[in-house]
Design brief:
This protein has helices at residues 4-17, 137-140, 153-160, 167-172, 182-191, 205-226, 234-241, 273-276, 285-291; strands at 23-28, 49-55, 58-63, 66-71, 76-81, 97-103, 113-118, 126-130, 260-263, 268-271. By secondary structure, it is of the alpha+beta class. The chain folds into two domains: 4-140, N-terminal domain of MutM-like DNA repair proteins (Alpha-Beta Barrel), CATH 3.20.190.10; 153-291, Helicase, Ruva Protein, domain 3, CATH 1.10.8. Its cofactor is Zn(2+).
Length: 292
């Protein structure tokens, strides 16, 4: 799933290539992906892309004051094309293509743009055409951005105070902190040397300070690694920079212990026992149920 660093990089990528260009059309293939009807998606045609920004994990293209807001969900991605003039007409079907944005041709006759694709059978990619990004429910309910200057250790202390949620779940909750998903929450907790099952309200001031530092540094480092990369290279860059996520069975780069995994109904987390849980493996609840 694209998280804050990847969406930030996609926003930068599109600023360089789309801002100042005129939208020729937005073709929606997966009808269920379009979550709004007023203004219609056709209203984007003829408008100029004036800015590209990020709200948590939402990508926002400002087109003369009308906003195309994109949420790539778990399996969505953005695929840039230098020339879509010869692309086949889009037709609803079972393929991965969800939508296509075509920009007007340049002086050389090239018509660049991008395609939004989504793998798998669970189609959650979402498109919104709105006058204000705050009209998108997911944007309106976002918690603070962890890379904002206002996200201080004291701000994090107020967030965790009295919260009986496990810290792993709290970090992934977009209404609490915007932009962190399954992968970077694993990375943050490993950097903070903290168990993913630790209850948020039990954190000491020192642990909160360590967690805040881990959040900011982990995300900033990931953003810097992704800066300037083409959209097609971002997935590989993210994978190469991960220390624990999706590395179950491999040695920890810090201590050499074997990275372990806890599975859930539709996801999993990875952690290092030595670095995070005092050497004790966490109970895998799904496996425990299977053994009963």
């Amino acid at each position: 799933m694209p998280e804050l660093p990847e969406v930030e990089s996609l926003a930068g990528f599109l600023r360089e290539r789309a801002v100042g260009r005129t939208v020729l059309a937005v073709d929606v293939v997966a009808i269920q992906a379009l979550k709004t009807f007023d203004p219609p998606v056709s209203a984007l045609g003829g408008l100029t892309v004036t800015g590209v920004s990020r709200h948590g994990k939402f990508l926002d293209l400002d087109c003369d004051g009308l906003h195309l807001v994109i949420h790539l969900a778990r399996a969505g991605w953005l695929r840039w094309r230098d020339d879509l003039s010869g692309a086949r007409p889009v037709r609803p079907g079972k393929g991965p293509l969800a939508a296509r944005l075509r920009l007007a041709p340049d002086e050389e006759g090239l018509a660049p743009g991008f395609e939004l694709t989504e793998a798998g059978t669970q189609k959650r990619l979402a498109l919104y055409v709105v006058r204000d990004p705050a009209e998108v429910p997911g944007v309106a309910s976002l918690g603070p951005d962890p890379l904002a200057e206002t996200f201080t250790a004291d701000a994090l202390k107020r967030i965790v105070g009295g919260n009986r949620t496990q810290i792993k779940g709290l970090l992934r909750d977009q209404k609490v902190i915007a932009g962190i998903g399954n992968a970077y929450s694993d990375e943050v907790l490993h950097a903070a040397r903290m168990s993913p099952f630790k209850i948020a309200s039990t954190l000491t001031d020192a642990q909160i300070a360590d967690l805040h530092e881990a959040i900011v540094e982990t995300l900033r480092e990931a953003v810097e690694r992704a800066r300037g990369l083409a959209a097609k290279d971002l997935k590989a860059e993210k994978k190469s920079g991960l220390r624990v996520h999706n590395r179950a069975g491999q040695p920890c780069d810090v201590c050499g212990d074997t990275i372990r995994e806890v599975s859930f109904a539709d996801s999993s987390l990875q952690y290092c026992p030595t670095c995070q849980t005092g050497g004790k493996p966490l109970a895998d609840r799904r496996l425990s149920r299977l053994l009963k």
